[in-house]
Amino acid sequence: MRNVQFLTGFALLILASSLASAFDPSPLQDICVAIDEPKNAVFVNGKFCKDPKLARPGDFFLSGLDKPGNTANRLGFSVKNANVEQIPGLNTLGISAVRIDYAPYGQNPPHTHPRATEILTVLEGTLYVGFVTSNQLNNTLIAKVLKKGDVFVFPIGLIHFQFNIGKTNAVAIAALSSQNPGVITIANSVFGANPPINTEFLAKAFQLDVDVVKDLEAKF
Question: Which of 88, 89, 134, 156 gives 60 a disulfide partner, CB atoms 3.0 to 4.6 angstroms apart?
Answer without folding.
Answer: 89
